Predict the structure.
Amino acid sequence: MTEQGTTHVIEVTINGRLYSRTVEARQLLVHFLRDTLDLTGTHIGCDTGSCGACSIILNGKLVKSCMMLAPQADGAVIETVEGLAQDGELNPLQESFSRNHGLQCGYCTPGMLMSAKALLMADPHPTDEAIRLALAGNLCRCTGYTTIVAAVRAASEQPAESSSTPPALGSGERAV
Ligand code: FES
Ligand code: FES
């Protein structure tokens, strides 16, 4: 990370692509994703760490991106909801949410999906109790949680791609 007064130059790998940008020291990571990189799949519901709409996976761990500053993500490997579908094919979790009515308005869905993905990376076959615990930091104001839990359970009963990570950055990949 290079400091330039109140700004920093950071490099972040997101969904397998390397980005290099100058950011304000006070910019939240969620605003960096949405406003600087136009990755608007990550939502903002509260900006206070309460709703989980902004959940992403950072260096393999579930993180609420409204609770981190962008400069703190320098050098990180991040997965956002945009990285779930591959080659136009929905991730099994996304398919399962659709098939099991795990969403209505969809506002909470990106965060739910990333929390569910983090769970399945750590525990490919979780109990319903473990699913509910993993989603405890994600609020949904319209669907209700029963179908969301059912969607995660159904995805966990499929082959392991649901917990796959995006392709690693190739050695020749350049920052954009
Ligand atoms: S916007 Fe981050 S937890 Fe609500
Ligand atoms: S589907 Fe509307 S907030 Fe969850």
Q: What stands out?
A: Helices lie at 29-36, 92-99, 109-122, 128-134, 145-156.
